[in-house]
Every structure is written in structure tokens, then in C-alpha cells.
Amino acid sequence: MGEGILHAEHFTAMNIVLLAVAAIIILGFLVLILKSSRANKKIPLQTESACVSEIRHSVSGNAKNGQMGRNMNLGMPLERNMVIFRLDNGDLIEFSLDDHQLQKITVQQRGQLTWQGSKYISFTT
Fold it and tell me: For residue 92, which of 43, 54, 40 has the smallest C-alpha distance?
């Protein structure tokens, strides 16, 4: 009987250690996300003349419920719209846009691209 109790205590201690490790990993990811967001905000807005070079619609995996890594599988494909802009100096910049942002953008369209760090702000013609 003593072994059974020891085994149950060991299992509980193992669960606590695993939960602590998982919490540290999740906290680490949250810190990285916050740092990235703050870094983008420190970078000034940039606006340059650009041309829409390519629009890709990709479907991958399953959509997740909500943000910040909630893992409730909704059983739906995750759709992303990737838009590649060519600046006048020849540089290419790629952004992921939602359907609303993509509505009025077409390939070969010229306009003013505004972004901040790695964050898309707008594209106006």
C-alpha cells in the first residue's frame, strides 16, 4: 500500500512540474509577442509608392478559436491572404491581410503603401 501512495504522490509532483514548464513556455511566448508589438510601435510609420506584385490565398491546417494560441479546433481551414508589394526601389515587402483589407487591392495596382515595422497599415490609390 505504501508504494501506491508514493506512486500517486510522484504522479502529482510530476504533473506540477509539467504544468510549471508549460506555464514558463507560454509566458515566454507572451513576452516575445509583447516585445514584438512594442518594437513595431517604436518604429516610425513609413509610406512609399508601391505596386501590388502578387496576391496569394493560402489555406492551411484548421482555424483556431480566438487569438493568443487557444487550441480549440473549429474544423475549418485557416485562410490567409498574402500580398507582396514592390517598392519603387525594387524591394519587396509581404504582408498578411484579412479579407476586409484585401477588398480593393488588385495585382499591378499602384498606390501609397503605409506600414510600421512588420505591420501593414494601409494601401491607398
Answer: 54
The Cα–Cα gap between 15 and 5 comes to 15
pLDDT in tens, 70-124: 445 555 666 789 999 999 999 999 999 988 888 889 999 999 999 998 889 999 9
User: What is the DSSP track for 45-77?
Assistant: PEEEEEEEEEEEEEEES--BSSSTT---B-SSP
Q: Residues 62, 36: contact at Cβ < 8 Å?
A: no
CA distance 22 to 25: 5
Beta-strand (E) ranges in the chain?
Answer: 46-60, 78-87, 92-97, 110-116, 119-124
Residue count of the chain:
125
Q: What is the mean pLDDT of residues 16-44?
A: 82
The letter for the amino acid at 114 is T
Is 124 exposed, middle or buried, given 0-12, 13-18 or 19+ CB atoms closer than 10 A?
exposed
- Residue 114 neighbours by CB distance under 10 Å: 16
Q: In whole angstroms, what is the distance from residue 45 CA to residue 122 CA?
A: 11
